[in-house]
Write a structure and sequence with these properties.
Layout lengths: L2 H12 L8 H12 L5 E3 L5 E5 L5 E7 L4 E7 L4 E7 L11 E5 L4 E7 L8 H4 L9 E3 L5 H6 L7 E4 L4 E2 L5 E4 L2 H17 L7 E7 L7 H10 L3 E9 L20 E5 L7 H13 L5 E4 L7 H4 L8 E8 L7 E4 H16 L3 H8 L3
Helix pairs in contact: 1-5, 5-9, 7-9
Length: 358
């Protein structure tokens, strides 16, 4: 594994970027894109892409910058923070976890707390604790002390978990693979293709506010108006105890994931088959995912203007929408390779045949 790749992963996953508060990761992404191309475009919400190639047809490739997290919704008189979710959370994964409040003055560490198990009733023990029953303890003793630290209602709250390789060095642990994995893939595709003579123009980068309604995907697609689009994201891995193949068959290390259906989109069949054939031609492993729930930016990409053939290319990830997640290095690299090979073959004639106009 290249150390430069691991350092990029560390920077991407450890930099905060909550929905609506993506400034920090936006600037990281902008710096990385600028190392590959001077042609950088951004919409008014903060989605960002780098442009390479001079072809007539436009290809959009994007992950999303934002991560699940929280927002300060109240401060108690005794100095505890109430909070609400930004994105989807399940109460079981939250208690006693460390968080970081991104106040205007400084970052402040806290811990998510609740009543101790010793004082829970038998009925309370059977239930998943809801977020409105939890609080964040930052070590303050009054509302005034909290405010003296610069914490205010409306401040974003991020999870805490450093990036590291596990004993199997290709198993990579960090807090925000959903969806810094997609950001990494978009950047590496730019890097690999920037010296190629592409038959199209590629716009590669990331959107904002995916976790709260695919919002940046809509504005970015409206700005670029692509002929073909790819969303890069993560899929739910099923290779852990307690899961069964009917829930998900995805495994870490078995190749990138091609999503054939989710709640937000059924991919364009000709584009789907085109990508599968490229994977087979180049002996790139891949997995197929069919989900009854969940969605990605592709749900907005494919509805742009007259319709945009779109496909989701993901990597399997364990424990998403929690403080920690795990992906496999080879899946990331194979996703980059597959997308590069696909993009190199998307000339005007091929695109028109996919769209169905010839």
């Amino acid at each position: 594994m290249e150390q430069t790749n691991l350092q990029l992963m560390k920077t991407l996953t450890e930099t905060e970027g909550l929905p609506g508060f993506e400034e920090r990761i936006f600037h990281v992404m902008k710096t990385e894109i600028a190392s590959h191309t001077s042609q950088i475009e951004s919409d008014h919400l903060g989605s960002i892409v780098g442009r390479i190639g001079e072809g007539r047809s436009k290809i959009l490739l994007a992950g999303h910058l934002d991560e699940v997290g929280f927002i300060v919704s109240g401060i108690t008189k005794n100095g505890f923070l109430r909070f609400r979710p930004l994105g989807g959370w399940w109460g079981h994964v939250l208690l006693s976890q460390r968080v970081k409040v991104l106040s205007k003055q400084k970052d402040i560490t806290g811990v998510i707390g609740s009543k101790a198990p010793h004082v829970l009733t038998s009925e309370e023990r059977k239930k998943v604790l809801t977020l409105d029953k939890m609080f964040i303890d930052i070590g303050a003793s009054s509302r005034e002390e909290v405010e003296s630290y610069g914490v205010a209602i409306g401040d974003p709250i991020a999870t805490i978990c450093p990036f590291e390789s596990l004993s199997n060095e290709k198993m990579l642990l960090s807090r925000t693979w959903d969806n810094r994995a997609g950001c990494y893939i978009a950047l590496k595709v730019l890097e690999r293709l920037k010296q190629e003579k592409l038959p199209n123009t590629l716009y590669s980068g990331a959107t904002v506010q995916e976790e709260v309604g695919l919002r940046g995907a809509e504005t970015l697609a409206n700005m670029i108006q692509p002929q073909i689009a790819f969303a890069t994201d993560v899929g739910v891995a099923g290779d852990i105890p307690g899961m069964n193949k009917e829930e998900t068959s995805l495994e870490l290390g078995k190749g990138p994931v091609l999503c054939f259906m989710d709640r937000s989109m059924i991919p364009h069949r000709k584009l789907r088959d085109f990508v599968v054939n490229i994977a087979k031609e180049h002996s790139i492993p891949y997995q197929i995912d069919i989900m009854t729930g969940g969605g990605t930016d592709a749900g907005k990409f494919h509805l742009n203007h007259h319709g945009v053939p779109t496909l989701v290319v993901s990597v399997a990830s364990r424990y998403i929408h929690s403080h920690v997640s795990i992906v496999h290095y080879d899946d990331l690299e194979h996703a980059v390779t597959l997308l590069c090979e696909v993009i190199k073959q998307l000339d005007d004639k091929t695109i028109q045949s996919i769209i169905g106009l010839s």
